[in-house]
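Hello K.,

You asked for the raw outputs rather than the summary table, so here they are, unedited. I folded two proteins back to back in the same session to keep the settings identical. This is the first:
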Amino acid sequence: MIKDLNVQNTMVPILNKIKKDCFVDGYKAYDAEAFGLLLSKYFKWDGDYIVEASFHALEDANFHELHKRFKKTYEDWLDESYEVNELDWNNTASPLHY
């Protein structure tokens, strides 16, 4: 319990600063929004790292089935996106157009 309190005591000022500095004036951002912004900025908008962090968070919170389904969905999405984004080397267009 003491470790959990330390995490909250550390994060609250950070989240409050993000809410104050990163959202438009007058908007009341929720902690989850501010944390999401922190997460995306920390990982420099790299979706793979953001998703991996989400996997670990779900596991830590004992949402094992959700983690499993999310991971499967993400892996399926990766397979589909790689198929769509592969270069068509038979195409005569310049690769710079991709």
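The second followed immediately with the same parameters:
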Amino acid sequence: MTEGRIPVGRPARMDVAEHLLTTRFRKTIWGPFLAAVSRYRMAQPGDRIAACLSGGKDSLLMAKCLQMLQKYSEVPFEVTYLSMDPGYGAQRLEQARAAWLALGLAPEVFETDVYSVVDTVRNSPCHVCAAMRRGHLYKQAQERGCNKIALGHHRDDAAETILLSILYGGQFKAMMPRLKSENYAGMQLIRPLYFVREKAVKAWLDACGVTAITCACRVTQSARGGKRAEIKALIAQLERAHPDVVDNIIASSQRVGLDTVLSYVGPSADPGERSAMDTLLYPEGTAGARNQVDRMF
């Protein structure tokens, strides 16, 4: 068996959701899912993966795909299904349970106070929310003997993150398909839907007749929907004229021309020979650098 490859046999019996994934959505979901898992070695022998379910459409698909992979793959790994209740309320939680049940999923639910904490945050509430959610998930997964957590981010999320970082963060930062945790030893985060487009996720869920819940935070529920909604609309507009725009945005994170990046200093470069433009990117630099800025402007 080729290292990193995820062999999948043909199942004898399948439920409706599985059947759709291996037939109608084979090219748009199942194939891209297997390609991402294989390329980035997301499921290795002996892994115990925590599939993190929110009740939203993306995590529902991610968990179902992992369930199928574990069921039919020759690679021995385990999946634990977890769901964090950030403060949904009884009605929304019941809606999430109905979606899980319809897809044959039964995650263990644990409660947190994420929403109540985030409601007190004025600046960057989405960043705080994401950090808190991830911390809770890492901790709960690690306590259950897992070495990886799987999130439902898809290809559109990856493209949007790059543009969000550039346009609103002033930095070039990509969403990685797999990365090691800095705070939880031995833990990794994987994104098995990294090659799957959001429109395919929606189409599959509609075909299954399953209704997912949406984010209940004050930012996404607002009239504008936050910065990510703006970026999503921008990409949709660009994609109408340039169908490959999402792939090109993500490809830009793999094809960085380091010689044309202002802050990059090559391994053989003398740090003392930075150009005036280089020094502009280091506001914590010397008084000489600040004087240079004054002279240029």
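The first strand starts at residue 48 and ends at 53.

Happy to rerun anything if the numbers look odd on your end.

Regards,
P.
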